[in-house]
Amino acid sequence: MPDASESSANGPLAFDLTLRPWIPVLRRGGRQDELSLREVFAQADSLRRIVGDVPTQEFALLRLLLAVAHDALDGPRDTEEWAELWADDACFAPVPAYLDAHRGRFDLLHPRTPFFQVADLRTARDEVFSLNRIVADVPNGEPFFTSRMPAVDRLGFAEAARWVVHAHAYDTSGIKTGTVGDDRAKNNKVYPLGVGWAGTLGAAFVEGDTLRETLLLNLVAADTTGLRIDGDDRPAWRREPCGPTAAAARHPSGVRDLYTWQTRRLRLHFDEAGVHGVVLGYGDPLAAHNLHTREPMTAWRRSKAQEKKRGEALVYLPREHDPSRAVWRGLSSLITEREVAGQGAEAASALRPGILEWVARLVTEGELPRGFLIRTRVVGAVYGTQQSVIDEIVDDHLAMAVLLLHRQDREYAQQSIDAVGDAEHAVTALGDLATDLARAAGTQTEGPRTRARERGFAALDDPYRIWLRTLADAADPEDQRTLWRRRTHRIISRLGYELLAEAGDAAWEGRIVATAKGTVWFNSAYAEGWFRRRLSDALGLQDFSGTEADEKEPRAADPAVEADAAFPAERAHA
């Protein structure tokens, strides 16, 4: 095996990413480790997943691994070729030779072609900036919310490599110092050109039980409908090294190109002890509109406003994640099949992620069994102050059987979507109760209503995830939906009675309130009656105490225990 040392007595420092440990992983037994690129692929079947310093870093590193896999395997071309890989325990055998062939481009410290960097990048004043500029868990101007307070003075080479990959994917926007040779610089500044490409996405990918399964499940075939992959698609390390300015305007040639898109120009400053500074500038910007045929790892929304502004007939933009909304509440955007508009028909208002279209194809064509369990992960950065800082990182998941993606068997998927609607309606009834109790007490209504809704969705979160994961095992999905409505009724009823108990004497005594039908004496008893009617109507059930449902439905175990039973390593990530 070639030497992977950080220094050489006869040459410059080196840090070979193909041989040096730098990718954090979680082993199936629960132990964390760091591995090289070569080791990750060799041990993928014994690894649970990548972990990363932050969830967005995990996504960026996964896309890097996928680019390596696509290029080393030169495929897959179709589902038949994919099925051969899935059945072959040694499917990643070509990767070591591939990494050896391109080893020079994976040296983080190479004097001429450093990994994902520009060797001679510098500012007119030869400034070297703090590593805060690339380390995402140290927000600029907000150093008090990190254990790295007040700044990042130095990084080891392994961690620095991870943040270089992350910067290309998620770097913030804002004014950046111009670099020598960048023709976009004006008065030594380059004005905002947007965040890194992955930062524009509501990222979604599929996880299996091991990292090997995860890599293969996200390894889309070149003949996937709706996804364009050109014959010359290749990753950044098989292209000419970047200079300080933007490359000639072009569209990504496919997923290998897109997963390694150079949205920034970087140069690390280092010594034998590690990295102590960075030069960071803009790279190749990428407009988000209508890249749904190139980017498979996000849902898309149609923007009629942009259609009007651009004068184009159809514009799709990435659908970003809402940090206040759990992933199961947006299930329809993940599992509803893409609609193909016929002649004269209206184009779809939303498109689910292409990666889930791909998995749907695998299950529909019988390459995956109907009961095969996957976990859909969603990750995203929420930017603030004109996209110059990362305010929040979204990280959520949803376990479900691939049956929900089956194109010819949509009943299970429809029941799962309708069950989300049941939850929404029931929580609305709970919010109405909070509003009525506040009116009875003569206080402001908006705060209590918002808190009650948050309380309702939080109480339904684990029960829904558990119900969804087991839905595919049911002979009749409609019966399972009835059980879900009864369970929802019981949970929201309990919360309603808690609100009534907490309302206090003012709400119990009540007051006269003007309504559209005249004045009524509004008190907690009046509010309770309306709540019971609204909740029963919302769920299509007769009002009942819950006894009947409890007799017919087996009582669920602790949600956390049930969730761990499906994915034992899941809680370790938190």
Give a description of the structure:
The chain has 574 residues and is α+β, with helices and mostly antiparallel strands. Among the domains are: 224 residues, no CATH class; 162 residues, Topoisomerase I, Chain A, domain 4 (Orthogonal Bundle), CATH 1.10.132.100. The protein is 37% helix and 14% strand. The chain has 18 helices and 15 strands. The strands form six sheets. Strands 2-1-3 form a three-stranded antiparallel beta sheet. The protein has a three-stranded antiparallel beta sheet with strand order 6-12-13. Helix 2 packs across helix 5, helix 11 runs antiparallel to helix 12 and helix 12 packs antiparallel against helix 13. The C terminus is likely disordered.
From the alpha carbons, calculate the radius of gyration and give it in angstroms: 27 Å
Shape: globular
Amount of helix = 25-40%
Tell how many strands the DSSP assignment holds: 15
Between the first and last Cα atoms, what is the distance in angstroms? Answer: 36 Å
Beta-strand content estimate: 5-15%
- Tell me the structural class: alpha+beta
Q: Please, what is the average pLDDT?
A: 88
Poorly predicted tracts of residues: 139-147, 340-344, 544-574
Report on the biggest sheet. 3 strands, antiparallel
